Every structure is written in structure tokens, then in C-alpha cells.
Amino acid sequence: MAQLDVQQKLEILADAAKYDASCSSSGTSKRNSRDGKGVGSTDGGMGICHAYAPDGRCISLLKILLTNSCIFDCHYCINRKSSNVRRARFTAEEVVRLTLSFYKRNYIEGLFLSSGIIRSSNYTMEQIVEVARSLREDHHFRGYIHLKTIPDADPELVHQAGLYADRVSINVELPTASGLKRLAPEKSDVRIASAMGEMKTAIVDTADASKRYKSAPKFAPAGQSTQMIVGADAATDGDIVRKASTLYDRFGMRRVYYSAFSPIPDASAILPLQRPPLMREHRLYQSDWLIRFYDYSTADVVAAADDATGMLPLDIDPKLAWALKFRGSFPVDVNRAPREMLLRVPGLGVKAVDNILTARRWRKLHLADVARLTASITKVRPFLIAEDWRPVALSDRADLTSVVMAKPKPKQMELFG
């Protein structure tokens, strides 16, 4: 590793960081250096690793590992101790120089830093904190910083990370304690939960203090996030959804990310030989969205899964799966139904529902009115009643799935159309 130059290290450690999905910059406070003080900003632009804020801004991050060497031997990890991969390691000073250099070239607006465990959890956490400290205090960097913390490290070191970073994350790794014990025996679900709880307490306490004292320091203003690996163990989609819901409720997570397991070279015999379908990861994100923004309970989403396997269908989205499974709740009257029931109509998003609620205060809505608010009226029709529409025949059809998922007929393209 000592013979590698910075460019070679960057090539290795940027590639090694691609397995970490929790690279979102949403929720941070806006800062810039337009007053001539400091370096950097959190405002949008273009760059290397793209993350998106809630208002649609694209934020570019330098996403790297401090090192891909590790003393742990987690079966699912490409950087595990027994893995035969090319190793590299940055010093804290090199990461600081890279971040500032990339920012000044307008490549990035922030840093996402994670690491394998070297020497010990405390030593590694010290190096990660030193990068953030140097950027903030020595160079007055005001851009976005996301630090991946180590749950086994001293709580004081993890606390320091929160003082310098906009967001911190602690990976829960796997959905079940049994899966973690089997595939990552050196990690403890109890310690991970404890670290998440301590982080939540610090975030809440600091937010409360900032309301009373202007001088109160900010602590991870963008909150904390976590990541689960999907498909490395026997956990069902129902298990994963329940785990994610617990993390949101218990630890106030801003986001739970899902990462489909990818087979790795020289893999352990206890790992699956094939990766799960990427559509499974997508369905879990859709389920997460239903709970967070569509007022679905965890039990509702789990009920959309297959009763025998506990897995969400891959050919249709969870919202449609729930609607088809519980047809007795439909159709709903677009002119009278409450917001929570309109949100359950397949094909109607939050924006469309809010527009419906506004429009129906002034007049009765027809099917054509709803069609103007949604991308697919075919998907919506069997599940609602409008002033001029009642889906009597459609609602009772046994093959309703094929109707709502009907693909448009192929059309011959014209060379000179």
C-alpha cells in the first residue's frame, strides 16, 4: 500500500465504496461561503456521486473509504479480512486534500466517508473524525459531510463525529439478529442498537438546546441513516419491512437504505450463489415509501406479501398488490372518500390526491378530471367511483391484474412520420 500514489488509492477506495447505498444528503441545513469566509457549500451542482435533496437539488459527493483493509471477516463483505482484493489506505491528510481539491475544481460539494476497521474500532474512528475535524476547523469547510460511524467505537468518538458531520450512519447490516450472528459473528446487534440509541438521544438533546440557546452547537442536523443487505440471508420481505419500521420508530432514522446482496469473489459457502433480483430491492423501497408518505401501517405492507413465502410480488408494486388482495376496500368515491383512502388507490400519488381534495371543494369530479391528474387512468379506474363512472364489471373481474397492468399495443414506427 505504501507504494501506491494518491490516484491509485482513489481508484481502489472509490470503487470499494460503491457497495454503500446510504449516500443521501437530504435534510441538512444550507451553508455557503459567499461571505468570503470558509470553503464550500451544501447547495446543488454536479459531480461524482449524486445524491438528491427533498427539493430536487442534485448534490455531488466524493464517496470513498478511508481504507478497504479490515480486521473483521464478515462473510458478505468484499473487504473482509480473508478476501483476496487489492488493499489501499488513505491518511486523514490525503482525504482532506482530495476533498478540498475536488471542491475547488467544482467536482463535488461534499464528502461521504466510510472505512474498513484497521487496528481497532477506536483507532479507525479517530481517523474518520480527524478528517471531518480538519475540514471544519483547519480549512473552514462548509460543504456537506456524511460519516459512516463504527458502533463498537468509544461513544465519545461517535459523538465527536456528530459534531462535525451533517449526517451520520450506522449500518444495521442484516434484518435479523440470527442472520447477523451467522454472517458477521464479530458484530453485535445489541451494540449497533445501543449506538443508534445514543445517536438519537444526542440529536434530540442538541435540537432541543438549539431552540433555547443560539450558541448551542449543531449535531448531525441531517440526522442518521442506516443500510440493510437484502438477499444474503433467509430474511423475507416481511422481516425486512418490520425491521425498517422498528428503526424508524425507535431511532428516528431519516432513511433506511436497502442494498441487494452481490456475490463476491472467493465467497463463503454459506452465502447464496446468486444475487436476489434487483426488483426486490426496488419493491422494498416502494414499501418504505408507502409507510413514510402514504399512511400505510407496517401490517398493511406485510399483508401485501405472499402469505406462504412472506415475499412481495415482483411483477406488481406493493400498493397494487395490497389493493388486489383487499378488494373489499374498493372502489372509493373520488368525491367523498377521505384522504387516507384516496392514497390507497393504485395510480394516485400524494400530489394527485391533494389536487383532488382541492378540486372537489368546488365541483363534482368526473373520470376525465381524474385522468388529467394521473399518468395511467387504466390503473385507477377499477378502484374508484367518479360522478360519471362506477366500475361495476371491472371490480368483479378475476383477471383484474392483467387489466390494470395491460401494456399498450405495439405500434409500427414510421421512418418519416
UniProtKB/TrEMBL annotation:
- Enumerate the residue ranges of region (Disordered): 22-41
Which PANTHER family does the record match to this protein? ENDONUCLEASE/EXONUCLEASE/PHOSPHATASE FAMILY DOMAIN-CONTAINING PROTEIN 1, TYPE II SECRETION SYSTEM PROTEIN K
Q: Which Pfam families match?
A: Radical_SAM
Kindly indicate whether the keyword Metal-binding belongs to this entry. Answer: yes
Give the protein name, as stated in the record: DNA modification/repair radical SAM protein
Return the InterPro entries for the record. Answer: Aldolase_TIM (IPR013785), DNA_rSAM_put (IPR023874), Elp3/MiaA/NifB-like_rSAM (IPR006638), Endo/Exo/Phosphatase_dom_1 (IPR051675), rSAM (IPR007197), rSAM_sf (IPR058240), RuvA_2-like (IPR010994)
Is Phosphoprotein included in the keywords of this UniProt record? no
* Positions of the Elp3/MiaA/NifB-like radical SAM core domain: 60-286
Named cofactor requirement(s): [4Fe-4S] cluster
Assigned keywords, A-Z:
Iron, Iron-sulfur, Metal-binding, S-adenosyl-L-methionine
Recorded GO molecular functions are: catalytic activity; iron-sulfur cluster binding; metal ion binding
Q: Where is the signal peptide?
A: none
